[in-house]
Amino acid sequence: MAVNYATVTWDQLHRDARILAEALVPRMPFKGVVAVTRGGMIPAAIIARELNCRLVETISVVTYDEEERGKPTIIKAPDAAGDGEGFLVVDDLVDSGVTARVVRERLPKAYFACLYAKPAGKALTNHFVVEVPQDTWVLFPWDTAPLFVPPLASRKMEGAD
């Protein structure tokens, strides 16, 4: 169970995706990019743009059935990527490594990169930008919504009589 939370903003995500893309330039050219859905879709789009890759494929792995952890299953295969040779796989986060293992089995020749990696899964990625402690739950911009928070002075005035 996560004890700490880290919030990633849209700006931070975009900056980290560009940092990752810059680190990948020496590995070019890539035949295409495979986004691990759903979290890898936005970073993959940014990286595909920066690397001028037009072929963007997806792989979708489900590891939960309702609220129970089940056997990881590919529900959408990246057919255009074959065995992954010449392809870049992009995800937002490698956590326990469950999804990454399934993706690596399906695309053994691909280069696997992600924005963020936790200790339990980082060995499954070829490149990542930021290491995150295992007990930290990462809140991505698509998981949160900005809310209005009244100024502290306003809250004091409401309770004053």
Automatic annotation (TrEMBL):
List ligand-binding residues for xanthine. Answer: D95, V138
Residue ranges annotated as coiled coil are none
Q: Please list the residues that bind 5-phospho-alpha-D-ribose 1-diphosphate.
A: R38, G39, D91, D92, L93, V94, D95, S96, G97, V98, T99
Binding of GMP: at which residues? D95, S96, G97, V98, T99, W137, V138
Give all residue intervals belonging to the Phosphoribosyltransferase domain.
33-145
Q: Give the InterPro entries listed for this entry.
A: PRTase-like, PRTase_dom, Xanthine_Guanine_PRibTrfase
Short name of any one Pfam family annotated for the protein: Pribosyltran
Q: In its keyword annotation, does this UniProt entry include Metal-binding?
A: yes
Q: Where in the cell does this protein reside? A: Cell membrane
Major localisation? membrane
Q: What is its EC number?
A: 2.4.2.22
User: Which prosthetic group or cofactor does it need?
Assistant: Mg(2+)
> What's the protein's topology in the membrane?
Peripheral membrane protein
Catalyzed chemical reaction(s): GMP + diphosphate = guanine + 5-phospho-alpha-D-ribose 1-diphosphate; IMP + diphosphate = hypoxanthine + 5-phospho-alpha-D-ribose 1-diphosphate; XMP + diphosphate = xanthine + 5-phospho-alpha-D-ribose 1-diphosphate
Q: Which keywords does UniProt give here?
A: Cell membrane, Glycosyltransferase, Magnesium, Membrane, Metal-binding, Purine salvage, Transferase
Q: Does the keyword Manganese apply?
A: no
Q: Which residues bind guanine?
A: D95, V138
Q: In which pathway does it act?
A: Purine metabolism; XMP biosynthesis via salvage pathway; XMP from xanthine: step 1/1; Purine metabolism; GMP biosynthesis via salvage pathway; GMP from guanine: step 1/1
Query: What GO MF terms are annotated?
Result: xanthine phosphoribosyltransferase activity
User: Where do the annotations place Mg(2+) binding?
Assistant: D92
Q: How does it assemble?
A: Homotetramer.
Function in brief: Purine salvage pathway enzyme that catalyzes the transfer of the ribosyl-5-phosphate group from 5-phospho-alpha-D-ribose 1-diphosphate (PRPP) to the N9 position of the 6-oxopurines guanine and xanthine to form the corresponding ribonucleotides GMP (guanosine 5'-monophosphate) and XMP (xanthosine 5'-monophosphate), with the release of PPi. To a lesser extent, also acts on hypoxanthine.
Which PANTHER family does its entry note? XANTHINE PHOSPHORIBOSYLTRANSFERASE, XANTHINE-GUANINE PHOSPHORIBOSYLTRANSFERASE
What this protein is called in its record is Xanthine-guanine phosphoribosyltransferase
* The encoding gene: gpt
